[in-house]
TrEMBL record:
GO terms for molecular function: tRNA-specific adenosine-34 deaminase activity; zinc ion binding. It holds the Pfam family dCMP_cyt_deam_1. It catalyses: adenosine(34) in tRNA + H2O + H(+) = inosine(34) in tRNA + NH4(+). The keyword Amino-acid biosynthesis does not apply. CDD domains: nucleoside_deaminase (cd01285). It is an enzyme of class 3 (hydrolase). Its cofactor is Zn(2+). One of its GO terms (biological process) is tRNA wobble adenosine to inosine editing. This is tRNA-specific adenosine deaminase. Its EC number is 3.5.4.33. Transmembrane segments: none annotated. Zn(2+) binds at residues 53, 83, 86. SUPFAM superfamilies: Cytidine deaminase-like (SSF53927).
Amino acid sequence: MVFTSFMEQALSEARAAAKRDEVPVGAVVADAQGRVIAAAGNRTRELNDPTAHAEVLAIRAACAALGSERLTGCDLYVTLEPCPMCAAAISTARIARLYYGADDPKSGGVGQGPRIFSHPQCHHAPEVYDGIAAEESEVMLRAFFLHRR
Ligand SMILES: [Zn+2]
C-alpha cells in the first residue's frame, strides 16, 4: 500500500532524528502524483530553533521544491500527532491529507488539546487519518525518552 511506504520513510526520518539526539519524529510530503517531494526529521536542537519540527521542515522543503507557498493536493505523513504550531502550518499550506502515527496526549493539537482543524478560524482542514504505524512510532519515542532520563 502506498501510504504504508510513505509512513515507512517518515519512520526512518524519525530514527535518523533519534541518532542525532533529537526527539524521534519524522515527516514526508508527497505530491498529488504520489511522489515524495520532501522528507525531514526534528532538528530543534541542531538548529537551536524551537520551530524546527519535522512537519515544518518538510513543509518548507516541499514549498521550496514546488516554488509555491501552498501545497495544494499534497499529503503529509508524520510519525506523531502534530502539535498546534504544526497543525496551523499544515492548514496554511493547504495540505490535502494528513496521515499520522502515534497520538500525542502531551503536545498534540489535532485529535486532542486545541484541535486546530475544528476551529472556525481554521480556513482549511485536511482529511485526517490517524493511528498509522502508531505502535512503531510510540516504541521509538518511549525508548528515546527512557534513554534520556
Ligand atoms: Zn510541531
